[in-house]
Amino acid sequence: MILPVLRTGSVSERGDPKPCREQDLGLFEIIARDGAARIGRLHTAHGHLNTPALLPVVNPNLRTIEPREMWERYGVDALIANSYVIWKHDDLRETALADGIHSMLDFPGVVVTDSGTFQSYVYGDVEVGISEIVEFQRDIGVDIGTMLDVFGRPDMSREELEECVDETARRAEQSLESAGSEMLLNGPVQGGLHEDLRARAGNLMGSASGEYGGFAVHPVGGIVPLMEKQRYRELFEILLAVRSTTPSDRPVHLFGCGHPMLFPMAIALGADLFDSAAYAIFARDDRILSPQGTFKLEGLTEWPIHSATLFGHTPEQVREMGTEERSTLLAHHNLEITQAELARCREAIRDSSIWQLAERRSHASPHLRDAFEWVLEQFEDIPDGPVGDSVLELLASTDPLRKGGERLSEDIGARPHILHLHALLSLRWRPPGSWWDGSGTGPERVVLIEGASPPWRHSAMGAAIAELLEEPSSVIMLSTPLGPIPFSLEDVSPWCHLDCPEEVWSEEYEDEEVTEALFEMGLADIPLVRTGPREIPDSEDVGVVRAWLDRCSVVDKLSVLCSVSPADGCSVTEGMVSRRSRTDRVVNVLLGDEHILSPRLSDGGISLALAGARRLNALDPSPPALFGEQADEVSDHPGVPRVWLLDDAIPFVGRGRNVMHGYVLGADPHLTPGQPCLVVDGNGALVAHGTALSTAREMAHLKKGVAVRVRDGALRED
Ligand code: GUN
To answer: Which of 121, 147, 190 to mutate to test the pocket of ligand 1 (most atoms within 8 A of CB)?
Structure first.
């Protein structure tokens, strides 16, 4: 076989992976997240499987790209082969049993195998037994095998699909037993297009258990026919339904999905693994993969997408190559592009822009755009049922704040973090209960400052102070392209970090639009005044008004981001003093000589200090609740979310160590990744405070990794 000439770089010296610690086998850890999208690490006997990842399909009879090269050059952690094909083929079976699958494929990383279910879908039946195929995978040393599930085609009747789900579930325990203690097992979720069946299958497979435990990974099965017809809307509907019930500590794999254009959207909705032979199959058909879609080699003058593989070749030169050389070269390009898009997705998770990437990629095909718009409709009008449950979880698990700039686009208002922030605003924000002059009546008017761009503490401060001096009982709001926001939240990003042309800030909004948005925030029926920026007036009361605005800002942030009731926020901040930076931003909030909190300059959030965490914890003397025992009815302001720590971990966390998964007994359902939380013992006494990295549901499942990044231990002696 002729390998393509490498024009850039050289084959790296990637050493063999280290096996995981025995106790970590099969554990999935979340390293970073952006809503439902996560960078994970599955611990295996052949190293970490870093997710999101694509498992390239390797056909042992036809190795278009050598597995060793996948490992070394393309950084592939794991590949997938079909154990049924190996089992059926005498020579391959003997070699695999004698030498093991890693040696047979010459691949040092994680080997995943499928079971023959897909062959039964294509050819009607397979001759292998349920335990037989799992035992075979175990005996050839596979890292993650697959049970023989029953393929549910989308065109089957509901009764037939129910049978696929039930029969797969009936085989689960036996298959888990056959896998033994060393091989991890895929537990596929079937159910066709029925969201309730998918959710039921997720439950059944998620709770199935054998002597050595449950499944390690949940692939979504039966979706190849959807992908062949570009039915992406149904694909994503199924993914959401499956994610509503599969345990959060297990990766979800989209069986047979591998087009790079689908990755950002699928990852944003919670897919962790993909597998596909597309890189090789498309290459054999002279087709070139790209995140923007597929291109045919025929007729190209220049490359519409480049890669290290294609550099130095013109399309014409490639067309003139022999068939094998050409398809090998294109397969290398296709794999390279696939890996590059996955790296881009992982980076987008790290910098919290996965949704923006999905939004951009949605324009790659009309089918994908249709699917994307369908998802936005679910966000806007959350349906009852498994899809709605998943959508709610996705929105609630998205950190509402962002550090960097936020690009304006037609879809910006439907980004999950912005929807979350706006939902928090309408649920938890309240107009001030008292005013700078000491009066405590209801608001006399709402003042909307328009035509000012951020930073508003400079551009709109004059107008805010002037209007408050004129009428102290005024609710001061700022006009933004995302709707009106309270002046007290002027430095909260993404509102204050919109990346857009300057003219956007001077855009005028119709009265109706403004009134509708104010209605959402409980400000209907209050007279509205619309005004523009002006200078800070000359008045001896300016200092008092500014101090009152500072306090409003702290109370409102505690309310919106930490769910502290405005009344509690007011009592905790009574007598507060702010220390400002040279750029006129509040950096520390003090009570006497106690530092209680700091506004976060990077995103406008709140960082509690230990004294503040103590005061806020004292507001709720009740003991915390175990997972699953939380009250159904919660108020709009249930207080700073609490995480109940297992006694064994108290001495460590109390001295400032992070809270690790597996040491948490309960967590409040309104816990939000990226936002403050309190860590308490069984009596509700403060052990530490920090930033939650997981949701309550995840804390109930995950057994490895950091659950709370601790800022301060409350039991420190210094
Ligand atoms: N490959 C593609 N789809 C499927 C499926 O539903 N089950 C299994 N086991 N493999 C697949």
So the answer is: 121
